[in-house]
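Teaching assistant's notes for section 4

Start the section by putting this record on the projector. Ask students to predict, before seeing the second block, whether Voltage-gated chloride channel family protein will look compact or extended. Collect guesses on the board.
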Amino acid sequence: MNKQTIFRYLLLWIVLGLLVGLLSGSASAIFLIALSWATTFRENHLWIIALLPIAGLIIGWTYYKYGENSVKGNNLLLDELYQSEKPIPLRMTPLVLLGTVFTHLFGGSAGREGTAVQMGGSLADQLTKWFYLEKSDRRIILIAGVSGGFASVFGTPLAGAIFALEWMLHRKVRWKSFFPAFWTAFVADYVCKDLFGVGHTHYLVEMVPPHTFMNLLWIIPAGIAFGFSGRLFAQCNHFFSHQFSKHISYPPLRPVIGGLFIAVFVFISDSTTYIGLGVPRILEAFETPLPWYDWLVKTGLTSFTLGAGFKGGEVTPLFFTGATLGNALSAWVPLPLALLAGMGFVGVFSGATNTPLACTVMGMELFGYESGLFLGIACVIAYLFSGKSSIYTSQHLEHKFHLNPLDWLMEFRRKQNGGNKG
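Reveal the predicted structure now:
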């Protein structure tokens, strides 16, 4: 590669990365401000949860009438990365932003990563209309958009860049994507945090035990549990989405029915612990023992919410699921409670998204680099034991190596049945 080519590459991606970072960071900041207002208003006016079915009708009808392929969400970004068929519509940004704010305002259980990633990818792809970009460059700008969205919504620029590369380029290395991903992530994080002044949640892991053989050995059963939990979360998502599609043919009606069930659940349980982002409960998981079933309830309620057609992400609910599962495991695993919560926080995320490196780095950015070895081992084990499952149906996992005996048994039975038929 000659100097002229390198200069063109750097100039192009410094400019594009700056633009994408400004757009995605600003979008995340506006989104987080709106989300904070929606959460505060809901907690101060709990009667609004009764209107969740009406909010579901508005979200469902809007996507049905105007959404087109935007309804595919994060999977649309992956599809366009792999196939590059048509531009991602700009309408995805306002639709997913308003849809997610409505979901949280009226009491749905969802996250925020999916919204930030979709806004980042949608806004970034609009630049392809104004700049001459080759097909490979369009893939890079999508990666940059995802990187900026993820980095700015969580305040983790390193993890944001690595997540975009690891998630979108599974088992493939394209060095041209590295600089745009990292540059955009840092720009977007700066815009959201420093220019808009939007803060992020801080988690505390005060005590990290020595790296003795026994301490590290205890990570294995915890990591396996996190992997199975990530798999359960992904499969519940797909199950409820399939059931709603199968039994309710008119899409706008799905979130109406789903919203009715969620509202009834909240009023019967007389608790708002499991709706919204659940950040207060996540913070509690680092400090004090919690009911063992918290992670199961959040898994079911979030899967049901998103399967019904409400909008939002899965990652913060995955943090909730992982942190509370780690908290529950502290009764049997002799590691500090906060450390186990932190391991679960990123471990379940790793298993559900197949991004162990990004999750490890994210954990170190959030909890401190001292816990890195515990976090890294937990994320890798969770990744290996989550099987070929993902919360993203379009993620390519054909060549993933895994250690899930359930998948091996199912594959063995398929081969046996095939042999018997022959």
